[in-house]
Amino acid sequence: MYLCTCMQQQYPSIVLENAVNEFAKLPGIGRKTALRLALYLLKQDTESVEQFGNAMIELKKSVHFCKTCHNISDFDECEICADKNRDKSTVCVVENIRDVMAIENTNAYKGVYHLLGGIISPMNGIGPGDLEINSLIGRVAQGNINEIILALNPNMEGDTTCFYIYRKLADFNIKITTIARGVAIGDELEYADEITLGRSIVNRINFSG
Questions:
Q1: How many domains does the chain have?
Q2: Structural domain of 23
C-alpha cells in the first residue's frame, strides 16, 4: 500500500522513487504515469529491462545529427541529404524530426530539409541564437538554393520564427514560400492528416512577411 500526504507522494523504496523521478523528467509524463511506467518495468524480466536500458544508451551514444540539415541520422549525413534523387535546391524549414516524418509520409515533397531544433519562444526562453538559423543562412549563402519553404506550425511562435527567417534571408535572391493554410491555425504539422499536409506543401504560397 502506498502512503501519501497532501503535500507529496510517499514511496516504499528510494530506488523506485528515483526511477519515478527520472521518468517524470520526460515531456508529457506526470508523476502518476511515471509511477505506472516504473512499476511496469519492475514486473518485466531482467533481460527485457536491460534491453530497454541499452536501447536508450545506444540512442544517446550512436545517433548523429546530419551535418547539413540537423536531422537525426545513423551517419554524419542523413539519408535524405545523401539521396541523389532529392532536389537539393529546395529546402523545407521545419521545427523538428517529427515534422520531417509527417511531411515524408505525404510523399508530396521531393526536396531536402533544414531542422531548426525549435521555434522562437520568449515565454520559454528560446531566442534565435538557440536555433539552427545561422546554419540555414550559411546554406543559402553557398548559392545552391533556389527556394526556402517555411513549414512551421501555424501559431504565434511559428509565425514569429517564419518572419524572423524571412527578414534574415531578404537580401538573398531566392524564393521564400510557406505552406498553404490547409493546416488550421494553431494545429501542429505532426497531427495533420497526410492529404491535408501534402496539399499544403504542393500548394505553397509566397511568404510576404
A1: 2
A2: 14-62
What are the E-state strand segments in 25-163?
64-65, 72-73, 87-94, 111-115, 147-150
The mean-pLDDT minimum among 3-12, 113-122, 133-142, 176-185 falls in 3-12
- Euclidean distance between CA atoms 103 and 194, whole angstroms: 8
* Residue of 91, 137, 95 lying closest to 110 (CA atoms): 91
Residues 6+ apart with CB under 8 A from 37: 23, 29
Name the grid cell of 96.
523538428
3-state secondary structure of 29: coil
Q: Is residue 72 in a domain?
A: no
Q: What whole-number distance in Å separates Cα of residue 116 and Cα of residue 135?
A: 9
Q: For the full predicted model, state whether its pTM sits above 0.85.
A: no
Q: How far apart are CA 58 and CA 67, in angstroms?
A: 20
Dist. CA 50–CA 37, nearest whole Å = 15
What strand order describes the sheet that includes 111-115? 111-115, 87-94, 147-150, 175-178, 205-206
pLDDT digits (tens, 9 = 90+) for 117-144: 999 999 889 999 999 999 999 999 999 9
For residue 199, tell me if it sits in a domain: yes
Same domain, 49 and 150: no
Strands 205-206 and 147-150: unpaired
Please tell me what DSSP assigns to residue 184. Answer: P
Question: Closest by alpha carbon to 201, among 90, 98, 46?
Answer: 90
